[in-house]
């Protein structure tokens, strides 16, 4: 016996609002195999073509290139802040901080593909991190990357 499962949204919500929220939650999720798989699957959704800014955002996170935080924030800050008017409300109190952290994590993964040893200050510059700020990269160091202080 089969059953039919249908998601019902109020008439004033579109599938694009739901897709936008999915994109934000994927971007805000820590990198792991499930997040990566869902991100790639969402990128294949044909409806994402209707919201090109979000397609580009997901594409940036699947491409092994360093993302400049300031440029990304300038591009997406209005979209980010506009989420409070969308389905599900605002993204949360710490969401902007989490987004920056996810971009730093992405950049460290990129840097680790190219370097096996890197000076910590050089790494901070490469991952778009402000010099002299309180972040410690040692928590991100892996077996593949040796941070030199």
UniProtKB/TrEMBL annotation:
InterPro entries from the UniProt entry: PSMD12/CSN4
Protein name, UniProt field: PCI domain-containing protein
Provenance organism: Nelumbo nucifera
Domain of life: Eukaryota
């Amino acid at each position: 016996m089969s059953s039919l499962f249908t998601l019902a949204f109020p008439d004033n919500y579109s599938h694009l609002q739901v897709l936008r929220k999915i994109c934000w939650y994927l971007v805000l999720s820590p990198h792991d195999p499930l997040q990566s798989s869902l991100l790639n699957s969402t990128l294949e959704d044909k409806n994402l073509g209707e919201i090109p800014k979000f397609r580009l955002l997901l594409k940036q996170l699947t491409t092994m290139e360093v993302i400049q935080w300031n440029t990304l924030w300038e591009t997406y800050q209005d979209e980010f802040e506009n989420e409070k008017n969308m389905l599900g409300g605002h993204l949360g109190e710490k969401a902007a901080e989490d987004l920056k952290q996810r971009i730093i994590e992405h950049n460290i993964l990129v840097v680790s593909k190219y370097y096996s040893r890197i000076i910590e200050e050089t790494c901070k510059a490469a991952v778009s991190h402000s010099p002299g700020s309180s972040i410690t990269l040692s928590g991100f160091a892996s077996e593949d990357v040796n941070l030199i202080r």
